[in-house]
Amino acid sequence: MEKLTIRKPDDWHLHLREGVVLKNILKFSSDFFGRAIIMPNTKNPITSIERGVAYKNSICSLLSKTNTFKPLMTIYLTESISNDEIKRGFLDNIFFAAKLYPANATTNSLYGVKNIKKIYKVFELMQEIGMPLLIHGEVSDPMVDIFDREEVFIDTELNPIIKNFPDLKIVLEHITTSYAVDFVESNNIAATITPHHLHINRNAMFFGGLNSDFYCLPVAKRESNRISLIKAATSGNECFFLGTDSAPHLREWKAFCGCAGIFNSSVALNSYLQVFEEENALEKFEKFASINGPKFHNLPLNNEYITLVREPYEVEEFVDIFDENKKIGAIKPFHAGQTLNWRVKS
Ligand code: NCD
Ligand code: ZN
After folding, report:
1. Ligand 2 center–CA 37 separation, angstroms
2. Share of the chain above pLDDT 90, in %
3. Is residue 319 scored above 90 in pLDDT?
4. Does pTM top 0.85 for this prediction?
5. Which CATH architecture has domain 8-304?
6. pLDDT tens-digit profile of 24-35?
7. Would you please indicate which residues are annotated as catalytic (active-site) residues?
8. Which residues, in sequence order, are CB contacts of 5 under 8 Å at separation 6+?
């Protein structure tokens, strides 16, 4: 196959950041995706309707008049969040979903939830009003090995949530293990899968010295897990869909503290397609990228189409970040310096 035309995809997990970074990177999502779920872990997290509205406006004000990209906003759950804020935010169409970060599980999750049982009343409300719960599925207990945190979360937190709230719409985000694949397939929930977890296993972080460019959370696992994720993504199974977890960090920050997060939105479709091609599953890509997500979320499919062509695509070493005309930094994209097989036809 040399060409693939599919309905415009959606990104069901995206970090757009704020300010100058947002300004520089938004185009990578708004050019290629119809909708994206915007993560609320900004420096000052999106914990209220007021902040949600301001954040959405700041994104929309950067879109050109003809651009139809829709940011789907999320509210960041804390132990003190009020049911009233959540209900009003959802029913007034400000928030599409709520995001659960276990406290300290990942970048900007300091205000997340320490004791998940404390917000069961919130889940009860969400189940009642049909609001999706998006979960960063890792325990943050420092005594639990970092490579086991997803599995332990599933057993100790997710399983009880599902038992208590069987009708709650749950997405287990950026899954990284065979254990999660099996769990999602055998429960009535969905999961997103990132491009990077389809390409790298945990060795990538240690190749040629400690390499934080491949450090994200949940951390990449053993090769056998990567293989399960590829099978899941390319299976066409409706419970798996695209979520890039594109999480940009300026170079100096990555270099300084090795913070977790991989920026991939500039190469996301190219990156996924590489895997689908290797698996001989290009005809399943539209399901994963453009159909399974809206079906799960009861949203209409996008009406626009995009075409992907099998032509070499050289990935730049850095995406430069400009403030007005002055370069103020750079972000390393996933696949930096590599040549991929597919590109989006402009
Ligand atoms: C994300 C970020 O940088 O905001 N980092 C990451 O490693 N994925 C947060 C997250 O989704 O865990
Ligand atoms: Zn994320």
Report:
1. 10
2. 95
3. yes
4. yes
5. Alpha-Beta Barrel (3.20)
6. 999 999 999 999
7. 245
8. 305, 306, 307, 308
